[in-house]
Amino acid sequence: MGFRMIYSRALQIEFEHAHNEEGEGAYTVFNVIQPLLINHKPATEVMLQSFAILWTDAPDTRLIAMIEEALITGVLSPVKLLHASKGSLCVVYSNKLQGMDYLRFHDAWIDIALGVWYDEWNAELINEDSVGCSRDGGRLFRTFAPVILDKHVLGIKPFTGEMFLHHDDWTPEKIIYYDDRENLTDDQLELLDSDPFPGFEDGIPLPDTSLKN
User: Fold this and answer.
1) pTM recorded for the entire structure
2) How far, CA to CA in Å, does 28 sit from each of 12, 15, 46, 80, 191?
């Protein structure tokens, strides 16, 4: 993927991986602010959910629409990975989802898959613990899904100050105060340019308007 596509107003791209030389294996990791826990109950703190989509060919935006529908209807929080291929939608879900919560999740995703735009997909729900040994999902899923789950920490977790995107940019050792110039090393002084915009005080030069023979 040579450029970063904007998929959704709600989803943010955390990571993208392009196809390999055989044209397979591209995937995108998304994150979204998640108001619900895995058991579909309201969270008492701000939660961030990360999940992946394993693409078959080019990105299929119908998958994005399904995710947005799941977010609205409250059944996205257990999802860790999605993959669609040949009329089948694989939904990898958290191993913490059990009992009646799983049944609600199962029925909801069956309906979401059947309602795909201009098609009907069958949903295959796969526990994350079964991905490596599952025969479901097709060859691409069996090849790449275990690798994606192993490489990335997917799921929901509290959103804390340490997760701010620019948190590490403002640590004390990265901030140099002008008043401390006499205490700086030679290497640090080289980073401070006393005239970063040479000629700025002279203004923008006027164009040469003299007549030429």
Assistant:
1) 0.76
2) 10, 6, 23, 12, 37
